[in-house]
Specification:
- 23% of the residues lie in helices and 30% in strands.
- It is built from three helices and eight strands.
- The strands form two sheets. The protein has a five-stranded antiparallel β-sheet with strand order 2-3-4-5-6, with helices on both faces. It has a three-stranded mixed β-sheet with strand order 1-7-8, with no helix packed on it.
- The longest helix has 15 residues, at 156-170.
Length: 187
Amino acid sequence: MILPIYLYGQPVLRKVAKDITAEYPNLKELIDNMFETMYNADGIGLAAPQVGLDIRLFVIDLDPLAEDKPEYAGFKKVFINPRIIESTGEIVKLEEGCLSIPGINENVEREEKIRIQYVDENFVAHDEEYDTFFARCIQHEYDHIEGILFIDKISGIRKQLIKSKLTNMLKGKTNCRYRVKAIGGKI
C-alpha cells in the first residue's frame, strides 16, 4: 500500500525516533509499504518519520541507480534501531534532495565514511562500515530518525534563498506527483 509522505512542517519530522522490538505491530507489512511508497515517489531511501511514524526504521534501495553505477546493484537494506557509531574521512559536498521537501535540492556536506550498528528486518544484528554514496544515503535517512532534515545542514544564505518555497510548503502549496500529507492536510 502506498502511504502518504509527510512534508516539511509535519511535527513528526522533527522528533527523535524511538527504538522498536521484533513485536512491533505489522512490521513486515510496514517495511513492504515503505518500499512501495518509496518506489512510487522515485526515491532511493525512506525513513519511518516520513510516513508519520516516530520509530527508528529506514529503508534504502540503490538498485534503480545501478544502470549508471553498477556498484549500487543489489544494495537494498532495512535498517532498524540504527546507531551511527563513527563518522570519519574527508568532508564531501554533494547535492541532496528529499521526498519530504519536494522541489528543493541543495549541496550538503557529509563525512565520507561511517560505521553503523543496526538490526535488519529479521532482527539480526549488523555492525558495518560504508563510504562514498552509500554512507551519504545512510546518513541522510539516519538524520530523519534524529529529527534532522538536510536543509538544516545548508548555509544561512541558501536557507534564505529557499525560504519562500518552504513557506509555501507550510501553507500546503506544493505540487507533487506522489501522495503527500502537508501541514494543512492532504494534497
